[in-house]
Amino acid sequence: MNLILLGPPGAGKGTQADLLRKRFGWLHISTGDILRRALRMGNPIARQAQTQMDRGELVSDEVVLSLVESRLKEPDAAGGYILDGFPRTSAQAQGLEAALHRLGKQIDMVLYLDISAPMVLSRLLGRRVCPNCEANFHVVNRPSVDDKRCDRCGTLLVQRDDDQPETVQRRLKIYNEQTEGLIDYYRSRELLIRIIADRPIDSLHEDIASIFHQRKLA
Ligand code: AP5
Q1: Which pLDDT belongs to residue 147?
Q2: Pocket of ligand 1 from Cβ distances under 6 Å
Q3: Is residue 113 classed as helix, strand or coil in its secondary structure?
Q4: What's the gap in Å between 172 CA and the centre of ligand 1?
Q5: Alpha helical stretches, state H, the chain
Q6: Which of 3, 77, 101, 119 has most Cβ atoms within 10 angstroms of its Cβ?
Q7: What is the Å distance from ligand 1's center to 1 Cα?
Q8: How many contiguous H segments (helices) and E segments (strands) does the chain have?
Q9: How far apart are CA 195 and CA 207, in angstroms?
């Protein structure tokens, strides 16, 4: 199964991708995670991208396309992959098609997580992440056991720099301007499945899994 998860910031793409990775063993490729990891390791290209990330703006198509293509070439992508947060522009969608063609791979489905802007806001403002193992929590919807520390590794949880109200608004605006058009792009290619993402994490996951089973993709 080769899947794209499409949806606004905070729709739950990362959360669902992680559950699908655990259940089906597919590789989870999040361009946001790759960029944040590269930044922590002092990668010079990621350092150039930091200003855009802190402002909630998109990193250049060239940079993310090359990151994704190299990741797709790794042997662990052979058993299926989930693209989370990519593509985000029509140039990225076209670049992805060309890269997949070169690699002899394809996309089987684009799952669009549909959710309202107010819900996105409450999810992102309440999100807490582990800076060590990248586990993802929410102060209300998915709290860690002791509220402040990561359940997996015990590290103090933090709020992402781009989860401040003003930056979240900018990210939503950019999503509407540059990414939303991909819904029609993938619908016209008969790859798009829309699912309402405004419901509890586990029931959404079960519904997604049953879509895959019905289509014999898992
Ligand atoms: P990125 O990290 O990709 O951010 P994003 O797309 O804005 O997505 P998020 O991680 O904010 O949200 P999500 O949908 O994964 O939600 P999550 O599961 O965490 O990108 C960050 C930056 O990197 C970009 O701004 C840009 O600068 C750069 N970048 C990345 N990719 C790029 C690209 N392709 N091109 C150019 N630049 C790029 O859930 C959110 C919260 O809600 C969590 O707290 C979670 O616990 C909770 N939650 C999740 N699901 C539910 C549910 N069903 N019910 C209740 N709570 C839930």
Answers
A1: 85
A2: 7, 9-15, 30-32, 35, 52-53, 56-59, 64, 85-86, 88, 92, 123-124, 127, 136-138, 141-142, 162, 171, 200-201, 204
A3: strand
A4: 11
A5: 13-24, 31-40, 44-55, 61-73, 90-103, 117-125, 165-174, 181-188, 201-214
A6: 3
A7: 22
A8: 9, 7
A9: 9
pTM for the whole structure: 0.96
Whose CA is closest to 20, among 44, 38, 4? 4
CA 202 to chain CA mean position, Å: 17
CA atoms within 13 A on the CB side of 139: 11
* Residue corresponding to tokens 């293509």: 69
Q: Taking 90 as the threshold, does the pLDDT of residue 21 lie above it?
A: yes
pLDDT at 212 over 90: yes
Q: Which of 39, 83, 120, 136 to mutate to test the pocket of ligand 1 (most atoms within 8 A of CB)?
A: 136
Inter-CA distances, 103 with 82, 96, 215, Å: 16, 10, 24
